[in-house]
Specification:
The chain has 2 helices and 2 strands, in the order E-E-H-H. By secondary structure, the protein is of the alpha+beta class. The chain has a two-stranded antiparallel sheet. Strand 1 and strand 2 form a beta hairpin. The radius of gyration is 17 Å and the shape is elongated.
Length: 70
């Protein structure tokens, strides 16, 4: 169950996805388990910062049409 807001109202949304296969459903299951305290997060905060710096660098490079230092 995902607790969120929809149209300024609290909503409980049951996640319905196949548990077999690969990709996003498995990532979401790991995330939910980590939030519920039932597993380790799939990535650390430090890894998230590195990923965001890379993404920011990609956008900056695209905007400047040149290499940028990260």
């Amino acid at each position: 169950v995902l607790l969120t807001e929809v149209d300024n109202m609290i909503a409980d949304i049951k996640l319905n996805y196949a548990k077999q296969g690969g990709g996003f459903p498995q990532q979401m299951a790991k995330y939910v388990a980590a939030v519920q305290g039932k597993g380790a997060p799939p990535a650390t905060g430090e890894q998230g910062v590195v990923a965001m710096r890379l993404i920011d660098g990609i956008y900056a490079s695209s905007k400047l049409n040149a290499e940028v230092e990260i």
